[in-house]
Amino acid sequence: MTLTDADAATTLDLDRHVFHSWSAQGSLAPFVIAGASGSEVWDEDGKRYLDFSSQLVNTNIGHTHPKVVAAIQEQAALLPTVAPAHANRTRGLAAERILEVAGDPFSAVFFTNGGADANENAIRLARLTTGRDKVLSAYRSYHGNTGAAIVATGDWRRMPNEYARGHVHFFGPYPYRSEFWSTSPEQEAERALHALERIVQAEGPGTIAALLVETVPGTAGVLVPPPGWLAGLRAIADRYGIVLILDEVMAGFGRTGDWFAFQNPQLNPDGVVPDLVTFAKGVNSGYVPAGGVLIPPAIAAEFDTRVFPGGLTYSGHPLAMASIVASIDAMREEGIIDNAARIGADVLGPALHALAERHRVIGEVRGLGVFWALELVADRATREPLPAADMAGIKRHLMAEGLLPFVQDNRIHVVPPCIVTDEEVRRGVAILDAVLP
Ligand code: PLP
C-alpha cells in the first residue's frame, strides 16, 4: 500500500469525513481501534484492551478467528458475490448449518444484511400470513434502524422515526424497576402478561399480526425474562392467532450459553417455541454483515404458490455465507457455546455477584452466559440511576486501565466474546473492581 496525502493524516482527521451513527457529529472523539485478536483490541500505539463489549455485542467467536478469516478469503477468491435468485452451495450450507442448530420446527432461512432487515422481513411474513397489520412490541427494546424495525423499537430512537402505522407498545417485565408494583419475578410476569392481554383486546385481536419480543431484551439492560413470561406470550399469541416473533439478534448464537436463548432451559423452562426467529450479529460475529429469519413449514408453505414480496441484492451474500459456515463449524469444534455457559455459571456470574457485595454502586447484577448487566445506582434504597456524568467518568477510567466496556444509560453491560478465558474474565473483573466506586 502506498501512502497518499490523505493517508498521512491521522485516523481521527480522516474520521471527520465519516458521518457517525446515533451521534451529534460536532463533538465526537471516537476510540481508534487499529487491530484485534481473540478477546482483545489494540489502538494505534499498540495499547491493548480487553474487549468486554464484543463491539456491538456481536464478536461472539472473538476477533480475527483464523478459520473464519480463511473461509472469507477462500470464498472471495472463488465467488465474492452472486445474485440472490441463483443457487449457491455456500449459501445452502449456511442455511443447513443454521437450521441444524435451531432444531424443529424451522425448515428455511431468509437471509438479510443484518438484524433490522431480519425484523422487517419477519414482520412482513407475519402480516402476509395473518392478513393483519399491527405489531406489538415492548417499550424497553431495540429491533433495528429501518422503517418498521425502528418503529417497533421501544426506546428513544423510535420517536424521531415514527412514521409507519400499526405499531403498539407495551411494558414487558423488569422486576428491578417494575411498572406493576410487583414484589416477585413471578408476579411481575403475571401482571405484565395481564396488561399485555388487555392491550391486545383493546387494540382488537383481529388487527394484530405479530408480537415481536427480544427473548432477552439486550440494549435495554439484559432483562432476563421472569418465570412464566415466555409461556404467557405463547399463550396470548395462540389465543388470538398472532405470530410470535422472537428477536435473537443479540441473544442468539452463544451469548446466553446456548445456540439460541429460547433453547436455554433457565430462560425458557416451558420449552416455548416461537413462530419466527430473527438473528444476525453472532451468526458470523459480524465479520461480514449478515442476518436472517428462521421460518417453519407452516409459514413457508404460505409462499409455495404465492410470491414472497421481499428481497435484497445481498441476501445470502457468499462472503457472509462462508463466514457463517466457518463460524458455526468452529463454534462446534471448539466447544465455544459450552464455554460461554460455563464462564457465565462458574466464573463471570459469581465474580460479578461478588463485586456487588463490595461496591454499593451496583444496584443489580443480571444475566447468564456472556450476557450480563451491572445496573449502577446513586442510592441502593431508592434505586436512583447513577448520573450520566458519573457513568462517563467510570467509562474513561475503565478504558485507561485497559478494559473496553459497553456502557448504556446507567449500566455496564459485561458482554465479552463467548471464547473469553477464565484468566481474561478475572483480569476484566479486577479492573472493574479497581475502578468502581
Ligand atoms: N435486534 C436486536 C435485539 C438488536 O440488538 C439489534 C442491534 O443491536 C438489532 C435488532 C438491529 O440489528 P442491526 O444493527 O444488525 O440492523
Query: The biggest beta sheet, please?
Result: 7 strands, mixed
Radius of gyration: 22 Å
**Category by helix and strand content:** alpha/beta
CATH architecture of the largest domain: 3-Layer(aba) Sandwich
The helix/strand order is HHEEEHHHEHEHEHEHEEEHHHEEEHEEEH
Write the CATH fold name of the largest domain: Aspartate Aminotransferase, domain 2
Oligomer: single chain
Total number of beta strands: 16
Name the helicity range.
25-40%
Q: Give the name of the CATH superfamily of the largest domain.
A: Type I PLP-dependent aspartate aminotransferase-like (Major domain)
Global shape: globular
Structural features, described:
- This protein folds into two domains: 8-64 and 335-435, Aspartate Aminotransferase, domain 1 (Alpha-Beta Complex); 68-333, Type I PLP-dependent aspartate aminotransferase-like (Major domain) (Aspartate Aminotransferase, domain 2).
- The protein contains 14 helices and 16 strands.
- It has helices at residues 5-8, 11-15, 54-57, 66-78, 89-102, 115-130, 147-152, 185-203, 229-240, 297-300, 318-333, 336-358, 388-400, 422-435; strands spanning 35-37, 40-42, 48-51, 108-112, 134-138, 167-170, 208-214, 243-247, 276-279, 291-295, 362-368, 371-379, 384-385, 403-404, 406-408, 411-414.
- A hairpin with a 2-residue loop joins strand 11 and strand 12.
- Helix 4 packs antiparallel against helix 11 (318-333) and helix 5 (89-102) crosses helix 11 (318-333).
- It is globular, with a radius of gyration of 22 Å.
- The structure holds pyridoxal-5'-phosphate.
- Pyridoxal-5'-phosphate is lined by residues 56, 114-116, 119, 142-144, 214, 218-219, 247, 249-250, 280, 291.
